[in-house]
Write a structure and sequence with these properties.
single chain, 74 residues, alpha/beta, 3-stranded parallel β-sheet
Length: 74
């Protein structure tokens, strides 16, 4: 089972994916509402995949957060 971290600033999108992904055979490792939270949770949870919104609030948008996750966790 693939573990997935869902990162999106919309609570509706996070909830929708949280219901959809398990029905497709995936485990939702966690959810994040900002890029910084996604970076932190990726380091703690070590998911197989991160689904990230490109436009995220705060100092790290989805692109910068994804790059940071990729560079530290590969």
């Amino acid at each position: 089972m693939t573990s997935i971290l869902v990162a999106d600033d919309s609570v509706l999108i996070r909830a929708w994916l949280g219901r959809l992904l398990p029905g497709m055979g995936h485990q939702v490792a966690g959810t994040a509402a900002s890029g910084a939270e996604a970076v932190h949770l990726a380091g703690v949870l070590r998911p197989d995949l991160v689904l990230m919104d490109v436009r995220m609030p705060g100092e790290l948008d989805g692109l910068a957060a994804g790059e940071r996750i990729r560079s530290t966790l590969d």
